[in-house]
Amino acid sequence: MSNAREAASMPAEIDFSESTPNPYAGRVRRRITINIDGDTVDYFKEESRRTGVPYQTIMNLYLGQCAAEGKHLAFA
C-alpha cells in the first residue's frame, strides 16, 4: 500500500478523552550496573520462563514491592 493511500485511510482526528491514563507516565527508569549472585539471577530467570515476563522486569517489580511495603533487610 502506498503512503498516500495509508494517509487517506487514517482518521483526521483521534479522540483520547475516554482513554485510560498510562500508569507508567512520569516514572523514570535509571540504568545501573549491579553485581548479583548467579543463583539469584538464575532464580529470576526461571521465574521469567515460568511467567513469560522478562527477568529484569520481575526483579524491578519485586524491588519496587519491597520499597512500597517498607521492607528492611534482616541480616542472619
Task: Explain what you see.
This protein has 76 residues and is mainly alpha-helical. It is 46% helix and 0% strand. The longest helix has 14 residues. The termini are far apart. The model has no long low-confidence stretch (mean pLDDT 88).
Summarize the structure.
This protein is mainly α and 76 residues long. Helices cover 46% and strands 0% of the residues.
Labels describing this entry:
about 0% strand; about 80 residues; mainly alpha
- Main sheet summary: none
Structural class: mainly alpha
Sheet-strand content, in percent, reads under 5%
- What share of residues is helical? 40-55%
Helical segment count: 3
Helix and strand pattern = HHH
Which overall shape is indicated by the principal axes computed on the Cα atoms? Answer: elongated
Number of strands: 0
| Rg calculated over all Cα atoms | 21 Å
Tell me the distance between the termini. 65 Å
Q: List low-pLDDT spans.
A: none
The average pLDDT value, as a whole number, equals: 88
Fold blueprint:
Elements: H1 3-9, H2 38-51, H3 55-68
